[in-house]
Structure formats: C-alpha cells, structure tokens
Fold:
Amino acid sequence: MSKTIFQHIIDREIPAKIVYEDDQCIAFEDIHPAAPTHLIVIPKKAIPTVNDVEPADEPAIGHLLGAIRTIAKQLGLDGGYRVVINCGPDAGQEVMHVHLHLLAGRKFTWPPG
Ligand code: AMP
Structure:
C-alpha cells in the first residue's frame, strides 16, 4: 500500500510545521487552516480510519488526547478548543491515516456543517 501524505510527514519526506512529537504521536499545522489554530494530531502507527482501530491500538489512540491536553496547555488555549475526527466519506475524511483535528482561536458553532 502506498504511503499517505501523513506517513510522508512522519518519515520527514515532506515538510510540515511540527509543533509536538513524542514516541507515539506527532502534531503539525494543517496546511489549510479552518481556524487561527488548526493542528493535525496523528498516531505514528498507520491506521487508516477509526473503524480500523484494534483493541491493541486503543492506548495509542487515547494517548492522542493526552498529547492534545499538553499542546493546549503549551499554546495557552485557555478559551477552549474543538477536537474533530472524520471517519469515512460521509464525514469527509480525505487522508486515510487516523487523525484528530485540534481547532482553536475562534468561536465554533454547533451543529458542525
Ligand atoms: P480530513 O478531511 O479529516 O481527512 O482532514 C485532512 C486534513 O489534512 C485537511 O484539513 C487538510 O488540510 C490536511 N492536510 C492535507 N495535506 C496536508 C499537509 N501536507 N500538511 C498539513 N496538513 C495537510
């Protein structure tokens, strides 16, 4: 299977503005930001969608929320933020590597579009 764009970022084969990295995950700026702060947070393991997460992956997926908490603190996102996971075509998932969007810096409406 060919690498996704996010795998190329993990492997440092294409540039990205990386804001956080640890042994299990990496976070970088979205190339088309939908808010003043828009980060993509991904596990280093290539899992295509939420539907492909196996029980053994669940600690790594939970770890992403811990990373988001750390990043939010580092960036001073005291007004709050939104975390989004798109899964599959109806949700508009474009990159087949599980990722969390971290959005902040403006007011968000509900329900989302
Ligand atoms: P999704 O629709 O949930 O699959 O979101 C994919 C996100 O990845 C979109 O918000 C894109 O703007 C973002 N994206 C795609 N390519 C890159 C890239 N090379 N660097 C940073 N973000 C990217």
Summary: Residues 5-104 form a domain with the HIT family, subunit A fold (CATH 3.30.428.10). The helical segments are 5-10, 58-75. The chain has two helices and five strands.
